[in-house]
Predict the structure.
Amino acid sequence: ASTMCKLVAECDKALICTPPNTHIPIALEIIAAGKTAITEKPLASSSSQVCQLGAADRQRLRQGLRYLESFLFNPAFKRLRGYIESGGIGSPLLVSVFMANAGPAKWRDRPFWRRNRDVAGGGALYDWGPHTIALALYLAGVSAREVVTSPVYVQRESLDSQKSDGMDVDWRLLIREASAGIPAMLVESSWVGSRDTLSPEGRSWVRVEGTMGSYELEVRAAGRAKEYQIDHAPHRGARSREVVIAEFPHDSFFHALRSLIELRDDELPFESSFDFGLKILNILDQVTVAAST
């Protein structure tokens, strides 16, 4: 704790990339120190963890926390939203998002904090689910309302219920490296080139159906890099394709982090707020309940 306080004292904004059940407590410590907290997704391990907070703590989080949903700052997805808002397909009717990765195989092969429901929330759903749900809400626009949430594809595994101290090991390692002045390389696992044979479709894509046509964005491997392929299919007129090349691997995370560091409070979009992170958690919990009945 003393090491974390020292690290926080030396910065203006602190990125929280520890297991989900620690996001809220650490964020409150950072905010109490007068600094801005930037937290990775999901906001917490469950919405019930947030519901246990008092009104004062919730208000502190609304004022001092920035929620990092990486894909919403990716240039390709921002471009797609711009096309939708400009009326390229009329009024949006349906947004579908699919990401084909249940996480690296090592998550399934040994006890690990990502497999511990109390720590991480619930495996691949709580790890990749925030991306898919956030993208759907982002592309649908602020006027869209969630009507019903239900799982379309559910893969059940016999999960190891053994508790793991991986959280403490990871946290101690991070603190030790930071104290030694070693830059922490913290990146997300990419689905590009994934060998995950459990993926239902093996690809990641976004499709938006509108009254006048559709857009589809697919993430594709381009050698050792990746590209975003945007197809426009109007009901009338010729189809078109645009390709956006990623600047570097894991570009979404770094675009988001840079934006959340540089933007002023009055420039932050709703999708970077505490309330948006909580909305994602509530939907994840609804899906979990629906899948278990």
Summary: Residues 153-175, 182-201 have pLDDT under 50 and may be disordered.
